[in-house]
Amino acid sequence: MLRALIENGHVVNLILALVAVEVLVVAWLARGRRGGFGPIDALCNALAGVGLLLALRAALAGASWREIAAWLGFALLAHGADVARRWRRG
Fold first, then answer.
1. How many CB atoms are closer than 10 A to CB 4?
2. In the chain, where are the structural domains located?
């Protein structure tokens, strides 16, 4: 069962669901707070990981190299946005 879950890429779907829950929890905890790690920060950070996870799922599912590269490019852009937000804050 675990082998099939990994080989067909569905394990990535489970991890993506956990990432979504994490972002929602951070957003809920950050409501009404000033400064610190807010919901937009959590989203930017999570999107980089989501891009990598989707690239992994595409690779496990036998997608073309172009699709895998597109997800990796998305992850790079999200990571850049995350770093830029942190950089501006100092």
1. 9
2. 2-89
